[in-house]
Amino acid sequence: MFRSRLSFLIVLMAVVSLVLAACGGGGQTTQPTQPAGGTENQTSGEQKRVTILGAFGGGEADAFEEVIKVFEAANPDIDVVYTGVNDFDTQIVVRVQAGDPPDIAGFPQPGGAARLAAEGNLTPLWPEIIAQIDQNYAPFWKELGTFDGTPYGVFHRVNAKGFIWYNKPAFEAAGYTVPTTWDELKALTEQMKANGHTPWCEGIESGAATGWKGTDWIENIMLRTQTTATYDRWISGEVPFSSPEVKRAFEILGETWFTDGNVYGGRQSIVLTNFGDAATFLFTEPPNCWLHLQGSFVTNFFQDSVKADLDNKVGLFVMPPIDPNVTPALEVGGDVFVVLKGRDRPEVRKFMEFMATGAAADPWIRQGGGIFPHKDQNLSLYPTSIERQVAEAILAAQAARFDASDAMPAAVNAAFWKGVTDWASGNRDLDTVLSEIDAARNQ
Predict the structure, then answer these.
(1) Which residues of the chain are under the pLDDT cut of 70?
(2) Which pLDDT score, from 0 to 100, does residue 45 have?
(3) How many angstroms separate the CA atoms of 279 and 33, rounded?
(4) pTM for this entry
(5) Strand, coil or helix: what is 147?
(6) How far apart are alpha carbons 249 and 267 in whole angstroms?
(7) Do 262 and 253 touch, CB atoms closer than 8 A?
(8) How far apart are CA 174 and CA 195, in angstroms?
(9) 157 phi, psi to nearest 5 deg
(10) CA-closest candidate to residue 289, choices 204, 348, 203
């Protein structure tokens, strides 16, 4: 009886072994060991997984998922998993420090990516994708994605500042024409006043961040009166705020803001008016004021009736050149995607290379709400001519730089905001304001 039972068990074990071998596929009985956090980066069988951590949420996340779907349709063996978090800047640092980074991170501000690069936590871009960027982007995008001389970043959705917006039907009915030089803009300002129109809508109130709107003015003037090299030296502190170069930018702005009749509500209203409310003054009946400087996101603050008919109701042009000897640069921002250290597997590289093509821009363009820098994007897909004009301005830019105040140390940034506010309100003279901002760098 014992021998019969033993024989039966031996046969049963053999059958079980054969079944397990058949289920294992190709004789593989163990999975390769993954690095820390690596189990989320591979799925079983033939499918490979790419993980992305970013700051897109809501409608932006939905639009980015459409981008991912296009890639996955062309690469059915690759599963791309995107996770959007509100506290991205914190989460990416926590995950890197815990040894659990995603494959790719999408930074809404390049400063965080630069810090990870300096700490040795990013993978430099490889020759194939660098060649693709050289072909498909203006040179400054590669420069802006380069940290300490090494290219790391691929830009996807972007934005720009320095646009001057106006009420299109009112502007055209009044017979005004878009200026192409700073002198023409000044002449337009005087023409508007002569017609009984207040030229500028302005407001820099923004709660604890009051003043940032004024720093955008200074940055855009600097990018039209100084070289990008001088602008970079200003960010680093080599060119102080009290320098003639920066003081001149403030003086040019002061001429626009403080000349009687130039700004709706007068000088005092600049500090008291919310930056979003100021944009709506263009579209009262009749307009309270006729020109407003703001970034490409300003359409979010327009009245609903205006947002529903942007192409017919809104016009824009880029702040014109000021110094004829300076090539004007565009102030830009954008989402830069980087590969974390040790994560540049073939499927990860493939997705990054896809992101550098217009095929990765077109799905979001169709959705609306996104502007892209790719030379091979399909401009005809933009839902509005306003979005298309912004994209065309970005493609036409000969040079570009990020927001200077955002790139400065936090104490200097805060002092810059406060200084512009104090100066605009008349509480401080210009020389005092500039010296106080410089002092913040040494605190």
Answers:
(1) 1-45
(2) 55
(3) 57
(4) 0.87
(5) strand
(6) 18
(7) no
(8) 9
(9) -70, 140
(10) 203
Place of tokens 């993980």: 51
Beta bridge partners of 339: 104, 123
Task: Give me the amino acid identity at 351.
Answer: F
Measured CA to CA, the distance from residue 125 to residue 59 in angstroms comes to: 29
Q: Of 340, 337, 290, which is closest to residue 317 (Cα–Cα)?
A: 290
C-alpha torsion sign, points 233, 334, 346, 128: negative
State how far the Cα of 87 lies from the Cα of 248, in Å rounded to an integer. Answer: 38
Place of tokens 């995107």: 82
How far is residue 411's CA from residue 436's CA, in Å, rounded to a whole number? 11
| CA 40 to chain CA mean position, Å | 28
Structure confidence by residue, pLDDT tens digits, 330-369: 999 999 999 999 999 999 999 999 999 999 999 999 999 9
CB 335, CB 106: distance < 8 Å: yes
What integer pLDDT is reported at residue 208 of this predicted model? Answer: 96
Its sign, for the CA torsion 127, 131, 137, 143, is positive
Q: How far apart (Å, rounded) are the C-alpha atoms in residues 373 and 157?
A: 7
Please report the pLDDT score of residue 29 as a whole number: 30
- Contact (Cβ atoms closer than 8 angstroms) between residue 167 and residue 282: yes
Distance between CA atoms of residues 422 and 430, nearest Å:
9
Q: What is the pLDDT of residue 43?
A: 45
Cα separation values, 227 from 44, 162, 171, 325, 408, Å: 54, 16, 33, 9, 18
Tokens 């991170």 sit at which residue? 105
* The pLDDT value given to residue 109: 85
